[in-house]
Amino acid sequence: MPVERLPGVQTGRGESADVEQEVRKGVLLTSLDRAVSWARKQSMWPATFGLACCAIEMMATGAANYDLARRGMEIFRASPRQADLMIVAGRLSQKMAPVLRQVHDQMPEPKWVISMGVCASYGGMFTNYALVQGVDTIVPVDIYVPGCPPRPEMLMYGILMLHEKVRERGTVR
């Protein structure tokens, strides 16, 4: 399918294709989408779902040494209705899986999930009938943070990767 060229848009430079694409989408909506994505990325409100030893490292990430407030995450929310990011830290039992799903369903859109640790991501060394082998079988996961338990730096790196994903994806479809 041939691409229509817009008058006045140079096609020899690398950025011209981006400009052309923005004009097609609508300059106003694109600018608004960028502003909304930037605001969402700068002010995520995490809901804690600490299940095991990874939760200790998650709490350490929220302490003064690592200062998540620089990333727009001042405090962890206790209510899922006030949060847009769920950090699942630790192994998930079969009995706790419906609760995780319910908490995820109570979060307003848009919402994101970080799976923290090997147990939350893949079941870890606990491969038995009582544990869920990966949180992604219950809720959609956006970012996986590896480790047993992952250090606070790894969680912060995962949060930064999520920020980049939110910035790139946008909100207006």
Question: What's the quick description here?
Answer:
This protein has helices spanning about 15-25, 25-40, 55-60, 95-105, 120, 150-170; strands at about 45-50, 85-90, 110-115, 145. It has about 170 residues and is α/β, with parallel strands linked by helices.
Supply the number of helical segments: 6
Shape: globular
Helix content: 25-40%
| N-to-C order of helices and strands | HHEHEHEHEH
Strand order of the largest sheet: 1-2-3-4
- What is the distance, rounded to the nearest whole angstrom, between the alpha carbons of the first and last residues? 22 Å
The overall strand count is: 4
Give the biggest beta sheet: 4 strands, parallel
Compute the average pLDDT. 78
Q: Any low-confidence stretches, pLDDT <50, length ≥5? A: 1-12
DSSP strand content:
5-15%
Radius of gyration: 20 Å
Helix-strand category: alpha/beta
Any chance you could write out the topology, listing elements then pairs?
Layout (H helix, E strand, L loop, with lengths): L15 H10 L1 H16 L3 E5 L3 H8 L23 E5 L7 H10 L5 E5 L1 H5 L20 E3 L6 H18 L4
Parallel strand pairs: 1-2, 2-3, 3-4
Helix pairs in contact: 2-6, 3-6
What characteristics describe this protein?
173 residues; four-stranded parallel β-sheet
Provide a descriptive summary of the structure in words:
The protein has 173 residues and is α/β, with parallel strands linked by helices. It has helices spanning 16-25, 27-42, 54-61, 97-106, 118-122, 152-169; strands at residues 46-50, 85-89, 112-116, 143-145. A 4-stranded parallel β-sheet has the order 1-2-3-4. Residues 1-12 have low confidence and may be disordered.
